[in-house]
């Protein structure tokens, strides 16, 4: 059944005989020798393999597991610790253990090589056989998603390993590709001048990659990896002289719900990065106008990957100093054209490194980071809702609406997420106590995902003649069915709606940010003023403290002195006597003063009485005068009336003496 390449086998066996290197990850030699036979490309199968989404768990290295987790085969048992939010949902009598099953659990010590061999390698054969595959990494921020997908220089992740594996497996590639895949999933045959353009595009990117980083360093790193992987067994493809195979790569990111091309040079600071839109063709959603570069070696592909990574949005947060702020999608496309019968097909392999879910309380994000964080969490929430809706719909055998359109990510992977295409997930957790609650969310998500059934079918080949017919058509010129057009309208509407929502959300976030900013400024100012007051109080206090102290000393001194005085009895009796005399004098003075006051009062009263009496006298004098005058006039009238009023007849006056 197995057709084995003799020379490869010999060289491998001789290498694997080195005992020393058997357990050495750097040497990447396995004692379990496997050789794979890939069926001839022309024997395309059309088989349906119903199964559920494969969900792998990778536990981050460097933490002690045993207090919180136990691994029993492919099952993870989590022991809910005191203080966990999950305790709230656990009723009395319920177990404090949570159990999650996986396709496979990769323990902390698992190497990058193990992950690649177990998860990716089998998919690469299906990929070569024409199957589309998507691999998602899902987990909280800092749990090891990017480490798994990209890895480090010393420990390359699944993408660099896949590139190397693919180029080692594929036969000698033609220097000029025969056809180019379009983002919509079709192919366009390439003329000589088209080929030149494609080569130029690749060369430009390679040259630009030297401008943004040390190109030679990337080459060195890749060559070192190549060296380490050179003893790894690869599949042998038989009898493929008839085929023209081309490898194409693209790299996109979804940042703040906008799609960007990572293989396009970033514009100057003033200009905005062009945003890409989603399109739909034959029920498949794709990114319009996404750059697709033809690469002829793993080394070239790796340099272009690095170019894209350089354009990716990273930022430090409290939980990860190099945190991906976007979902990134690295795609390898394989275009196979049969020279004899014109048969051709395209298969694609998406490696999607999702941005990490994060709680702003933990990350302490503000401003841009908070906005990114909200967008990341929203799209992951939509992903979770879609997955759960698909699972429920599959269980109930109904066609309930799944909210794929609520985020770019779910729109793009709609087909795979609804079970129409091969998809697998690597969920990553950080097993520390601090991240327990986040890890439980991730594990619950993976439990739902693992229940989704997928039906994969390898494609039937198209014929080059069909392609040739469409040779002059551009992607935009396709004749769309009315259903496709309606879907496109829906997509555009959704995009508009999403943008509107995003705008409103951003506005809200900005407002909230500004409000918080002002509050902070106000609080800062308030604190500043309070501090100034305290400072001033302190200064005054200090200033008077000396004076107060001086007074205290004075008082003490006086007290001491009074004590001294008390000690002298003569002086004391003299003082007493003086005090007594003073008291008496004061009393006498007070009495005298009282008497003086009383006398003064009496005087004042007498003065008043005197004035009143004077007035009375004056009145009486007036009355007397009046009476006198009246009386005088009466007498004179009487004298005048009788000559003789006296006996002797002599007139007299009463008032005369
Ligand atoms: N299994 C592991 N072994 C050793 N180091 C690891 C492992 N997983 C992650 N790391 C290290 O932990 C740090 C954070 O990992 P990584 O950047 O992959 O997290 P992430 O999940 O992609 O986070 P984010 O969502 O914020 O981008 C990195 O320095 C990485 O090298």
Automatic annotation (TrEMBL):
GO terms for biological process: microtubule-based movement. One of its GO terms (cellular component) is spindle. InterPro entries: KIF11-like, Kinesin_motor_CS, Kinesin_motor_dom, Kinesin_motor_dom_sf, P-loop_NTPase. It holds the Pfam family Kinesin. One of its GO terms (molecular function) is ATP binding. SUPFAM superfamilies: P-loop containing nucleoside triphosphate hydrolases. Keywords: ATP-binding, Coiled coil, Cytoplasm, Cytoskeleton, Microtubule, Motor protein, Nucleotide-binding, Phosphoprotein. The keyword Secreted does not apply. Residues 482-630 form a coiled coil. It comes from Tribolium castaneum (Red flour beetle). This is Kinesin-like protein. ATP binds at residues 139-146. PANTHER family: KINESIN FAMILY MEMBER 20B, KINESIN-LIKE PROTEIN KIF11. Residues 52-452 form the Kinesin motor domain. It is found in: Cytoplasm, Cytoskeleton, Spindle. PROSITE patterns: KINESIN_MOTOR_1, KINESIN_MOTOR_2. Belongs to the TRAFAC class myosin-kinesin ATPase superfamily. Kinesin family. It comes from the Eukaryota.
